[in-house]
Amino acid sequence: HDAKNMEVYEDLGELYLITKNADQAEETFKFILRTRPNDASVLTSLGEIELSRGRGKEAAAYFAKAVKKRPNNPKYLDFLIEASIQAGDVVEAKKALQRLRDANPENQKVAEFEERIAEKEQPL
Questions:
Q1: Smallest Cα–Cα separation from 25: which of 33, 94, 75?
Q2: Pair 67, 96: CB distance under 8 Å
Q3: How far apart are CA 51 and CA 47, in angstroms?
């Protein structure tokens, strides 16, 4: 009912994500971004959309912006590592992994990420 209530739009975008309606989700989150350009949560949601489309490089750009806003958020770092691996950017993946280790040393995914990054470093 309130066109200026961005939280409602964010909930709508999340609903679109859950129902796998990426185009509508993207449109909704980009609308929010026009009024809240530094919203780490919205940037992350846009990154998730790009990641689901197999666009690791584009996803990593969104996640990097979110991490810049919230540098110790394990969820955002996790997404940045995933997108960097998908994009083949081993350097960025390693940097984000070190930040994840610093922010959350007990994170269960660290060993998995290390293995996947090492695989990307192997010559074909």
A1: 33
A2: yes
A3: 6
